[in-house]
């Protein structure tokens, strides 16, 4: 394919890789270049890939242990570590998650061992009259932390926050109506809150990153609730300032990878049926945030 080439987006995060085919086994030197690009740019797209679910899963395993999403109804029936992100229905039911990415978030931060990496492969991209819809937006959490005033950095030292899938579920149900409201008993099928540092250290680069997000962070522990709410709202707003953000405009065949310690992301819901969006996703288990 003419050799591998990496080009930066020019911003705080984001890069494009061309010249490799990941539908076949990737050799160690090529993998190491991809891994290094992820450490440097946090969000990396590999263009023009044709992958079956098993091929996506095989590539994903190079980075670690795949995770099976807690919403099992959205997982591929033959390759369960691959999940569907789509607005398409089958037999009158959603094929996969139709409301994923409504809020800024870091994938699976509600687990004790959150996602290290997310890999999303586009099979169908919503388009009308030559315009592509459904961008995914990313915000760099290392740059966001580093730009905080020193007094705020000192205030955040040692603080921990509760990250809650159960809290997020009914919030989405009320806000968007794409899932049913669950009772307290029904919510118990999903994980209990995970407690993580408000600021975590990246396990590879050593950079400090903000690790609270509007999607799942319920409250900061050990301080009064009004103080927690005010501080979280300040951090949520700061984290997604334009200078930290990269917006990805999808093409069919894109394999987009992102580091869930280093970035948060949010989908653009500017499309609806009959426009179709079909993606297949793998997430890779990370380490406990430190």
Structure commentary:
The chain is of the alpha+beta class. The chain contains seven helices and 20 strands. It has helices spanning 28-41, 53-60, 141-146, 150-156, 165-176, 184-187, 225-239; strands at residues 5-8, 15-18, 43-46, 66-67, 83-86, 89-90, 93-94, 115-124, 127-128, 131-132, 136-140, 160-163, 194-197, 199-201, 208-210, 217-220, 245-248, 255-259, 263-267, 278-285. Strands 1, 2, 3, 4, 5, 8, 18 and 20 form an eight-stranded mixed β-sheet that branches. The chain has a three-stranded antiparallel β-sheet with strand order 17-11-19.
**What's the helix-strand series?**
EEHEHEEEEEEEEHHEHHEEEEHEEEE
Distance between the termini: 40 Å
Number of strands: 20
Structural class designation:
alpha+beta
How much helicity do the residues have?
A: 10-25%
Largest sheet: 8 strands, mixed
Portion in strands:
25-35%
Short description:
The protein is α+β, with helices and mostly antiparallel strands and 290 residues long.
Q: What is the topological layout?
A:
Elements: E1 5-8, E2 15-18, H1 28-41, E3 43-46, H2 53-60, E4 66-67, E5 83-86, E6 89-90, E7 93-94, E8 115-124, E9 127-128, E10 131-132, E11 136-140, H3 141-146, H4 150-156, E12 160-163, H5 165-176, H6 184-187, E13 194-197, E14 199-201, E15 208-210, E16 217-220, H7 225-239, E17 245-248, E18 255-259, E19 263-267, E20 278-285
Parallel strand pairs: 2-3
Antiparallel strand pairs: 1-2, 3-18, 4-20, 5-20, 6-7, 8-18, 8-20, 9-10, 11-17, 11-19, 12-13, 12-16, 14-15
């Amino acid at each position: 394919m003419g050799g591998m080439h990496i080009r930066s987006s020019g911003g705080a995060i984001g890069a494009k890789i061309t010249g490799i085919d990941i539908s076949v086994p990737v050799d160690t030197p090529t993998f190491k270049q991809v891994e290094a690009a992820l450490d440097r740019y946090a969000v990396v797209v590999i263009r023009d890939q044709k992958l079956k679910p098993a091929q996506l899963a095989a590539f994903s395993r190079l980075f670690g242990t795949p995770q099976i999403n807690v919403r099992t109804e959205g997982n591929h029936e033959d390759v369960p570590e691959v999940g569907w992100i789509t607005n398409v229905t089958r037999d009158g039911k959603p094929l996969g998650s139709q409301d994923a990415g409504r809020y800024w978030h870091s994938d699976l931060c509600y687990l004790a061992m959150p996602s290290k990496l997310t890999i999303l492969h586009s099979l169908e991209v919503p388009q009308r009259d030559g315009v592509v819809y459904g961008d995914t937006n990313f915000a760099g959490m290392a740059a966001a932390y580093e730009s905080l005033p020193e007094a705020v950095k000192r205030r955040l030292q040692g603080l921990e926050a509760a990250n809650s899938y159960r809290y997020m579920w009914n919030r989405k149900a009320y806000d968007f109506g794409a899932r049913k409201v669950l009772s307290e008993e029904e919510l118990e099928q999903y994980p209990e809150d995970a407690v993580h540092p408000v600021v975590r250290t990246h396990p590879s680069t050593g950079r400090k990153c903000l690790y609270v997000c509007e999607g799942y962070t319920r409250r900061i522990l050990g301080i009064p609730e009004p103080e927690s709410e005010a501080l979280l709202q300040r951090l949520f707003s700061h984290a997604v300032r334009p200078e930290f953000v990269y917006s990805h405009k999808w093409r069919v065949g894109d394999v987009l990878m992102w580091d869930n310690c280093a970035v948060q992301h949010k989908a653009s819901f500017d499309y609806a049926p009959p426009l179709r969006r079909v993606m297949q996703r793998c997430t890779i288990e990370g380490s406990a945030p430190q």
